[in-house]
Amino acid sequence: MEPREEDSNRDWTEPGIYSVAPGVYRIPLPLPNDALRAVNVYVITDGTELVLVDSGWALEEAERRLAAGLGAIGAGLGDVSQFLITHVHRDHYTLAVELRRKFGGKVALGQLEEPSLTATLTSEWGPMQAQIQLLLQAGGRPVVDELVKIFGTTPPKAEESLWEKPDEWLAAGKRTVLGGKDLDVVHTPGHTAGHVVFADPKEKLLFTGDHVLPHITPSIGFQPVPVEYPLRDFLSSLRLMKELPDMRMLPAHGPVSPSVHARADELLAHHETRLAEMGDTVAAGAGTAYDCALRLTWTRRKRSLTGMDGFNQMLAVLETGAHLDLLVLQGQLTSADDEDGIRRYAPR
């Protein structure tokens, strides 16, 4: 295997190692039964030392492909000195934990991910406990029933072997990654509360994790410790991207793309449209986030809520609730929780 140049005509998930810029490579790694298909891990090297941005899911095949990719540049898994992780979701974090056990290397994660990682390690229901409660508040009992069909009577407990605390909690600011090379750590809450991106203004590269993706809109607030207004945080983080110089986008899912600004504009416009659509559904009589989600279509394929699997139904209903709560915050809707704990919305 030899490193290949990035090619927009090639499927971004095709196994291999791809040259992004001098000393920067992309390695797509597989995901199990996941619509996202793959996750990009980025290698930063000065020829002697290696740093990875994100690590992949702790799967044997992912580890094999990562080893093969590094081998193409004359390196091995034991040469990785640091793992810089954008957020704590398992497709970004857990292979770093596994490789640290085998080979060493330090793992660094945004400091505002600590509550969710702690909850993942200690909760009897694992990382989905909070989501079940939010679904019930959204009037989404049918979605909870779908999840029970998949997982049993309770959501799956987190596999303890996949989760450990990092060696370092990252704060915003400059972070030395190699001798003579710094990255800017930028806090971008929304997808998760502690999500960070890594900027290299000198090379005009932005490692965007799941914050800015080229083909899909990231889920909002899927984490064990929810925040009150995850969509507000996400939109603010997108606007923050516009305040930085425009750079090439190196996303976790999808191909390398020429402009972070252009995609941030598209995502901001998308959510403005969705806010209007969701406000209209409430005006038309939808009283809960679940009712509203049933009246909308989802994904680029315009699928119905009930046409998706239980996990994606959950993401859709929770995202709907995040939009409706933001409309309440903006003064366009009202909300109140009834005696059953279900949150009901109405036009102001």
UniProtKB/TrEMBL annotation:
Task: Extract the signal peptide range.
Answer: none
Query: What Pfam families does the annotation carry?
Result: Lactamase_B (PF00753)
- Tell me which InterPro entries the record gives: Metallo-B-lactamas, RibonucZ/Hydroxyglut_hydro, Sec-metab_biosynth-thioest, WH-like_DNA-bd_sf
Q: What is this protein called?
A: Glyoxylase, beta-lactamase superfamily II
Naturally occurring in which organism (per UniProt): Prauserella marina
